[in-house]
């Protein structure tokens, strides 16, 4: 209570001390605040210039390549790389199905290989894959009509889900296909 | 606790002491501060479009062929969907959701005459056709009058055995009417660029194998043409008011006995008043014919002749209609003025789009050559303007010089530019003390309702380029949005065009960019010389594909690059 009385007495005695000058410390402070606000709204190059809409750059497009069974082999998902597999001469990027086709997955045998026969016969056996990587591609001549039907169905699902990133030709035939495509 | 008591006492005393200095000036400053803050917060506007939409304006295909870049398409026509190929023309009674047909040029005129089809306050409204003569005389043409002219002229040319009709006229109603007459009566139209040298005219006639010419006296070298181009069979003079009393049917001695000469007015007036009121019916109409245009590049180089099918034009019109957001579409309340030659497909496509949207269209025959916006907009106050880059640059230079002279002008211009680039908003026009002062400082005519300016860079024609800084200044000067397109010989309409709400000023290279592709085109870049596509940068020769390109694919012969926001720029 003493404190309060003391302060009130002090305040009363100090009242006449207010001056009418423009540049008192309070005025100077408020003026600085006003000028800074005006600068911030009117003059400062805001964050909306160049830096603001920082959408991350698009990943570069994948180049369409001509693969042979040898060059396709490394793309089986090892070391976090992309997973490719080939169906009837077209190479699909199945990295999004890494759980199935990547290393350790149930269909890992197909990764980096020509999977046409395996898909047609519905088997993930080693025997479905072409043994000789340098030889001609599997011609799929001996497949029955329902196996071909199954293969077509698989191919359609692949087209809908995955991206075509290249074509598969036998070793030594890369040039021939390109001439035809010209 | 004596220390903290003292501390608190001293703190209390100093704060009271500081605010004890409150005097009149403090009140004034505090009021100004509160007022400024309130004004800024109350007048803050959201950007016209989301900045993320401007940061990625086109979509690239995920796979690219070696030696080429990815294929880029507009966001309105993503990969996997077909490109915009038609006008979606529906019969008058059909439901709004029915799938329409692609249509052709005849449907453009039918729609212009029929009026707005959508239910709403403007149902049935049609646009007006105006011609600006001289300084302030504006003549209106009634739509059924023009329909009658289309029918009579088309029938006359057909009766006389015409097949390929060359049109050598300045921007005028007669040019459009002849074009529609050719499309309704199955004639091939050939549009010649106006005001060319005599040799150029003869060479173009020869290359296009035209047998009929519709032209205006005074600019067409009749004697020379008859002597050097014997295949000419028919000539129709479009005579203006002042010279109507002369006899234009008389052919001078010794010239052109084989040419059948008549005048537009005679053909129209000699038929009974009731003839020609109805357009040929929709059922049983034949396949639309092609339109041939000539692309003028640099002076001294021969013009390139390009044949466009009706489908090319219709696809280009549809893409231009899509490029403007629904809320800002052209409508019966708009006045469209082409201040660029109608022989350019870009201007022609935009004019047809305006007619299809039932906007009023004004023609000024001297606007295209004048390269001056003030001359072009005399007599009529357009809301949508098609201008040449040269005219825009001239306006920019004059207005900048005028602004630099006054300090207030420069400050206001800086504020306007800040609104545009930082806040992404068009500065509010019209009311307000500041906008009035600014409009006076830049010399904007009072009552100017201009809201959109369309302009085009012509590949290979040495048109001056407009950097995004110049475009932003022009937006502030005119109070209108500007769309800058890239046009080429073999592309009907435009290949790429900047977005309607894109007000950004870009700083890479020379600051010039042409925006993303339209919904009727897709762009790719093929490796050419030193410009290649790698994982970091995409450059090469610009290739345009789509239903609006003659022959479905065209190489433009210039090097371009795709910027980070997937817009096209020159390399």
TrEMBL record, chain A:
Domain Cytochrome b5 heme-binding: 67-169
SUPFAM superfamilies with a match to the protein in the record: Cytochrome b5-like heme/steroid binding domain
Localisation: Endoplasmic reticulum
Keywords annotated in UniProt: Endoplasmic reticulum, Heme, Iron, Membrane, Metal-binding, Transmembrane, Transmembrane helix
InterPro entries: Cyt_B5-like_heme/steroid-bd, Cyt_B5-like_heme/steroid_sf, MAPR/NEUFC/NENF-like
GO CC field: endoplasmic reticulum; membrane
Superkingdom in the source lineage: Eukaryota
Annotated GO MF terms: heme binding; metal ion binding
Main location: endoplasmic reticulum
Positions of transmembrane segments: 22-42
Similarity annotation: Belongs to the cytochrome b5 family. MAPR subfamily.
Name of the protein in question: Cytochrome b5 heme-binding domain-containing protein
Lineage summary: Eukaryota, Fungi, Dikarya, Ascomycota, Pezizomycotina
From TrEMBL, chain B:
Cellular component GO terms, alphabetical: endoplasmic reticulum; membrane
Domain AMP-dependent synthetase/ligase intervals: 153-223
GO molecular function, one term: long-chain fatty acid-CoA ligase activity
Protein known as: AMP-dependent synthetase/ligase domain-containing protein
Organism the protein comes from: Thermothielavioides terrestris (strain ATCC 38088 / NRRL 8126) (Thielavia terrestris)
